[in-house]
Protein: Peptidase C26
Amino acid sequence: MTRPLIGISAYVEPADWAVWRGVRAVLVPEAYVRAVTAAGGRAVVLPPDDSDGDVLAVLDGLLLAGGADVGPGRYGQQPHPRTEDRPDRDAGELTLLTAALAVDLPVLGVCRGMQLLAVAYGGTLHQHLPDVVGTEAHRPAPGVYGTHPVRFAPGSLAARTLAGVAHVNSYHHQAVATPGRLAVSGWAADGVIEAVEDPGRPFVLGVQWHPENEPDPRPIPALVRAARRRASGPPVGAEGVRAAGPPAV
Structure:
């Protein structure tokens, strides 16, 4: 059986390798690629591009990766002094997300990706979480993951996907404040939203942690399984939209 193709959104950052220093490069941590491959998928790296979502015609699933902050203008706020956004990523990923929802492509949002999902569905973000919870527990030190308990809404996609998971890793300074039209399905002990989903679609899930760096990366295999089911199901109609209707964004 052909491996399902999973698009992973990437970012453009200055990078160093060999004799080159500070060269702008399209980047995504290899952990995402390894997790998709281990789950039986084929990873396709997607640079920021807001021209159109045509690439989704050849993909079976979309993974919105973590990274810099979502621009606060996208949800009607002024920037916090600690906010560092990437307008090119916002534009490119929202183009992909809108097109993915239009054809019910399975979508997994990781960390920033979950926050982008919430914004696309009409939600808002806490721009600097320590201002809300009073600690740096969700990002304890530069480049150092924290860990904390998590609980899931019974019967939700998150609960079914992550049955038995009681702790997750943590590295973020922003978080979902309001989920818009998404359902909240996971929480940290301090009330921070850890999972969101769209119950009206086959697979639209956001997780605030980084499953690609967890010993138990279940959200990513779940995405690959959903992509495989879609690839083997009824074809998309002539208009490019499945029976579920227009996108929510």
Summary: Residues 237-248 have pLDDT under 50 and may be disordered. The first strand starts at residue 5 and ends at 9. The chain has one domain: 5-231. The radius of gyration is 17 Å.
